[in-house]
Amino acid sequence: MYADRPFKSAVFIGISLDGFIAREDGDLGWLTSRGEAAGDDLGYDEFISGIDAVVMGRGTYEPGLTYDPWPHEGRHTAVLSTTLEAGADPRVTVYRDLDTLVRGLAERGTKSVYVDGGQVIRTFLRAGLIDEITLTTVPVLIGTGLPLFGPAGRDVPLTHLSTKVFGAGVVQSTYAVEHPA
Asked: What is the DSSP-derived secondary structure letter of residue 79?
């Protein structure tokens, strides 16, 4: 469907061992405390240095408003949302649907996209728009929360690229997403 897109999309996200990206109320304390205990930036700085656009949903964007400084300065930031008011924040461009977003990224000459937030990651996966996934798994079972993955409509085959072990038992694995020919 989007085979001719001019950009590559990557996921870089932290998860609990049981596959959650946040508690049901959005709390990330279980993740951030263990990430700090790992003692490294866990490769995020290197990852983000090669990114020219960030795509997220409203649920990821709104909590990020509390960050000072804005973490995506110098990168086009797109929010995929049907409810967020367009133009309210000059740092972001709001897109109402995936087709318009993909077209907008292509028109901007985007080469590399960081896809963030569970719903947007799942949307991109279903559309065949994810090329690489880096999962940083912290050794905790939180039992319930916001899952990273959900129904994809098909199997999504992955090829293991690398695994690194950090302090505090944090394990990071990177996979290439195989796209059918």
From this structure: E
154: amino acid identity, one letter: R
Q: Give the largest CA-CA distance in the chain.
A: 43
45, 166 contact by CB (below 8 A): no
Give 48-67 pLDDT, tens digit per residue.
Answer: 999 999 999 999 999 888 88
Which residues of the chain have a pLDDT value below 50? none
Residue with tokens 């999504």: 156
Q: Which residue has the tokens 């129904």?
A: 151
Phi, psi of 77 (to 5 degrees): -120, 120
Amino acid at 120: V
Listed residue (40, 18, 47) closest to 30, CA to CA: 18
Model pTM? 0.94
